[in-house]
Amino acid sequence: MRGVKLKDRVDSPELNFDVNAKLEEKDRKSGMRVVGFVLTVGTKPSIAKFEVEGIATLEGKNAGIEKLLEVDPTNKIPLLLKRIYQHVFTSTYLLAALLDTSHPPPDMLSSGELTKQGAEGHVAWEGKEETKAAEKPKETKKKVKAKAKR
Predict the structure, then answer these.
(1) Tens of pLDDT, residues 19-35
(2) Residues 80-113: pLDDT tens digits?
(3) Dist. CA 122–CA 32, nearest whole Å
């Protein structure tokens, strides 16, 4: 996890957050998937930037794993990315507090309705590590904009 304070407070009453995400399949076996991720959150105006990189290991029934990898047709965001964001939000919030800057909203990528859908399976989290891919990696990039209320 990395955080950078680019400027001190800005006089703008509205602060927007841009999210860039990359999901890359690292390994695939029956009942398990290993997915590398990079999640970058920046502010507009440019005040701070946060980046989280790691590995998510999905374990469970293949149908449950596929459900986590599906893209929500309404907002085009995979459920796995929403789960990753939920998991790393607290760390991002604490890093923003240490940098004395605004933090992204906790529900930026999901709503209560979306998080209740869930899927059968377990997601484990690790820090960055190198893993050889069993197949050609599948890559997803997504840009999301959200507004913060001050």
Answers:
(1) 899 999 999 999 999 99
(2) 999 999 999 999 999 999 998 888 888 887 643 3
(3) 9
Count other Cβ atoms within 10 Å, centred on residue 7: 11
Chain segment 124-141, per-residue pLDDT in tens:
444 433 322 223 334 444
Token pair 């899927």: residue: 119
143 membership: H or E segment, kind and range: strand 139-148
pTM of the model: 0.69
DSSP state of 118: -
Angle between helices 79-99 and 62-69 (to 10 degrees): 60
Of the chain, the end-to-end C-alpha distance in Å amounts to 25
Question: Could you tell me if 25 and 33 are in contact, meaning their C-beta atoms sit under 8 angstroms apart?
Answer: yes
Report residue 135 as tokens. Answer: 């197949």
